[in-house]
Amino acid sequence: MNEAQLKHKNEEFIHKIKRENPNFFDGLKEGQSPEFFMLACSDSRVSPSVITQMPLGEMFVHRNIANQVDQEDESFSASLYYALVHLNIKKIIIKGHTDCGGVKAAWSDGVDEALSGWIGKVKQSLPDKTNANDVHIDELTKMNVQKQVARIKDHPVFKAYGEGVQVTGYLYHVATGELEKL
Fold this sequence. Notes:
This protein has helices at 3-20, 24-28, 48-52, 74-86, 101-108, 116-123, 137-154, 156-161; strands spanning 36-41, 59-64, 91-97, 166-172, 179-181.
C-alpha cells in the first residue's frame, strides 16, 4: 500500500462512518470513555480494534512485541496509569496470539542483537527450555499471556490504582480468527 492508497482508505473510512452516523466525529472530539484497556502484541495481523469490531473510543490499547508487562517500560506504565486513573477502566485484557514471532524468537534463542533486550524479557515469561523442550509454540504463547496477567497484578501502578479492576487473558487464533478466553 502506498501513501495515496492509505489516504484513499482513510477517505473511505470517513465516508462510511458519516453515512452510518453523521455526528460520530463530533462525539469523538468530546473525549473517550473506553470500557477496556488492552495490552496486545504489535503484530499487524492481530489489531485489537479490527478483530473485535470495536468502534473508535471504546478500547484503550497499548501494544508491544509479545504483549509484555514490564515495570521498566515507561510507555506501558504511563498507559496503564492513564487507563486506570483518568479513564477509570474496569477491565484489562492481555491478548496474545498464535504464531507469535516474539515468543518464537524467545524460544529459539536466535534473535537479532537489536531485539535481544526485549526478547530477553519475553524469554523470562517462558518455562525453562531444558524441562519443556517439546512444548508447542501456541502453548508457550498461552503461558506468556498467563504470565502477563500475573505480572500486571504485581505492577506498582496496578497495585496503587487497580482495585476492583478485572484482568483477563485471551488468545487470538490467527488461523481461524477466534478469540479464546484463557
